[in-house]
Amino acid sequence: MQQEEYVSVTEFCNGHSISTTVITQLNEFGLVHIIERSNSLYLPMEELPKTEKMLRLHTDLNINLEGVEVITRLLERIEEANNEMIKLKNKLSLYE
Description:
- By secondary structure, the chain is mainly alpha-helical.
- The chain has one domain: Multidrug-efflux Transporter Regulator, Chain: A, Domain 2.
- It is built from four helices and three strands, in the order βααββαα.
- It has a three-stranded antiparallel β-sheet.
- A hairpin with a 2-residue loop joins β2 (about 35) and β3.
- The chain is elongated.
- The protein starts with 5 loop residues before the first strand and ends with a helix.
């Protein structure tokens, strides 16, 4: 059984010079998953790249969290559409 690794939300926020409320709001929007253990909040390691991408949108481009949510959802839909297109192209090549 694989053991998952986590990083403390407080530690993550201190490293990025942001408030922990930003991460909790991203969690409320359903954009990141936070694990609560021993009265502390943790982010799974696999969530870090996605979370950092959203933070760059929020801090570097000064986009509010609602806008970050919309952008993230649209990017996910684009990725799904691209994956579906590749899948269909592969099926089509079988018939050619």
